Amino acid sequence: MKFASGILLLCSTLAVAQEKPIILRAGTLLDGKGGVRHNVSIVVQNGKIEKIETTGGAGYDLRNLTVLPGLIDTHVHIAWHFGPDGRYQPRDDSQVTALGYALENAYVTLMAGFTTVQSVGSPIDGPARDAINRGVLPGPRILTALRPLSNPQLTPDQIHEYVRKVAADGADLIKIFASKSMRDGGGRTLSRDQIEAACSEAKAHGLRTLVHVYDAETIRDVSEAGCTTVEHGTLISDQVLQLLAARGTYFDPTIGLVTENYLANRSRYQGIGNYNEAGFASMEKNLPVGLAMFKRALATRNLKIVYGTDAVAGAHGRNIEGLVYRVQEGGQDPGAAIVSATSLAAESMSLGDKIGAIAPGMEADMIAVEGDPLKDITSLRRVAFVMKGGSIYKGAPAGEKSR
Length: 403
Hints:
It contains 13 helices and 14 strands. By secondary structure, the protein is an alpha/beta fold.
C-alpha cells in the first residue's frame, strides 16, 4: 500500500509539473530585441516560453493585437502615494497602511503592462516584493534597493558597512544619492572616494548600483568607479555621455513623466519638504534642459539608454507616458524605445537571460496592445492583455479562447 501511495503521489506531482500548455496566437509579435514576426503561436508551459511556431491551433486569440514582452520600468517608487486627504504622504503611521498603498500601486502598474519594476526608495518595498512573489496577489516583479544611501557624512569605511547591511537585509541592488535634488540645484553630495566605496562594496556582494546624479563631473566619477547605472543626468556633457558609452555604463534620463507629474499634482505636494515655490520653478525651468539632454544622449553612439520613469505618487499606472514622450518629443525611434523598456532594461538589471524578450526559455512575461506601437507609440497605452510568469492577469478570459 505504501508503494502504491508513493506512485500516486509521484503521479500527482508530475501532473502539477506538466501543466497544460497555454497557446497565444499573435498576429504581430515584437520580440523585444528589435525583431518582428507575424502570424505565430507562442507556447507557454510552467511559466516559461516553450516555443514559437508558425502552426495554428486553439489558443488565446491575440491576432488583432500586437504582442510584445512585458514592459520594464527600471526606476520607480512603488510606495509613494497620496494619503486620505489627497496630499503626498511621505510617512505612514502604520506599516500595514504603507504596504496596502504599495500593493495598490503595484496592481495598477501591472495592469498598465509593466511586469517588472525596480523600486528604489522605501523599506516597505521588500515586503511588497515578497507578497507578490508568493503568487497570490497580482503585481509586477519588484526589485528593490530597500534603503538608499543618502547620508553624505558617512566615511568610506562607514559606507562599506552600510552597503553590507543593506545587502544582508535582502536588497536586490544599491541606490546611491551622489547629488542633491534638482529642486535644490542638483549639486554634488558625495566625493569620489565615497562613490567608489559604495560601488565596490556592492560589487563584492554581487549587487548592482543605481546612482542619482546630475552634473558631469560627478557622473564621470560614478562611471569610472564602476557603478552600474546613472540616473537623471540633466547637466551631463557630451564628453561624459561618450565616456558612459565607452565604459558600458547604463543611462536612464527619467524624462517625460516624473517632473510633469509633480507639476500636474502641484497642490498635492506644495509645502512638503523642498516642494516649494523655488523647487517648482526649478522643475519648470529644467523641463527643456532635460529634453535637450535626452536628444544629445540619443546622438551618442553606443550609449545604453534604458527606460526608467522615477514614478512617484500620481504616476503609478501611467509609467508608459515617459516612453511616449521620448518618442514624440525626444525623437527616439519607436523600436529602440521599446527595446529600452524590454531587453535592454532587463540586461541593465542582470536579468537579460530571463525577461525582456520573447524567446524559448524566457519567463512568460508578455502583453498585447491595441494597434502597432512601431507606427503609433501611444498604442502602448492601450494594454488589452497581460501575462506574467505564465499567469494571465488581464484580458482573454477562458470563454474567449479561439477555436
